[in-house]
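Hi P.,

Sorry for the delay on this. The queue was packed all week, but I finally got your sequence through. Input first:
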Amino acid sequence: MKKILLILAVACVAFCGYYAVFEMGTSPPKAYAPGQTTAYETQNEITTQSLTAFSETDEITEVFQTEITEVVLTETEITTEIITATISETELPTETEVISETEIITEAESDTEAAPPSPEMDARSELKIPILMYHALTKNAEEASSTVITVEGFKEQIAALDAAGYESIFFGELLSYVKEGTPLPEKPILITFDDGYLSNLTLAGPILEEYGHKATVSVIGITAGCDTYKDTGVPIYPHFSLEAAKMAYGSRIFDFQSHTYDMHQNELDEDPRKGMLQKENENEDDYIKAIRDDFFISKSLLESEIGVDCFVIVYPHGKCTPLADSVLAGMGAEISVTVEPGINIVRIGDMNSLRFLCRFNMDDDTNGEELVSLLADQTK
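Then the structure:
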């Protein structure tokens, strides 16, 4: 009897368990109050919101990028204070890096080694290149001097060059010839102006345009846009502003390169430097730092304010040392220019032939015929 009761009890329990499981599997889903969402619906909503947010973010990013582009295109003014402050963040050579003049020269020569000439190189692997040096122009013959030429004198010289078949080039074309063998005109010549006088643009510009010539102006950064010498109040021939230079650069008549930022000094300066020479009381490390800092500012101003590629250093009064020249070559000054008279022999593949280039100073003492005769003798 007990066994029968035990069997009935087990069967009852099994039947109840089966019924419970069956009912759970077939029961209707739980009802939710109006407005209440399921876990799936909540997750779906989050996903939808995320996609919407991403889309909106993408649109905002596009607008932001557009605004940034407009700012970059319109905001080109960089002050001297900002550039000077940037110098402190620029990696300058430490005492252990500046070991000797010989090592710096070797490193600079290695960095500026020209690439192998292209198959389309100029057939002439060596050229004699004359460079003319001008400063200011004037309409008043009484103001003429060794650094000031009259408009009439300048026009006569340019007309004579044109009639003799000379074609003016920029330093960039000369660099391309040496680096890549890019062909140059049959009778190339470089026309240069030192300091950055306003008369270069207003008086020389129209004459250059008339005869289809072009010129390079080396700019003293600190006197750009000034008609007095720094903060002394001493009058000087007016210098064009960087804004004016930018407009002139667009004409393709002028290029602009560095004449230092503030190393074109004279007796009005306190403890003036002679060109880019080392001062008597200046150690080598300080000298190198001064050279680097100055060229950094000059190059930054020209490239940001005018839009040029600054790769030429024109030495103030032609004064510089081999050490400074090597340091500047390492900073991107691929061409250096002096005031020494003479003809330049440049060679394809020889970057050293672009160091310490010579120039002929021009004034009213040389007429057009004499200039052409001088160049003919020098380029034989």
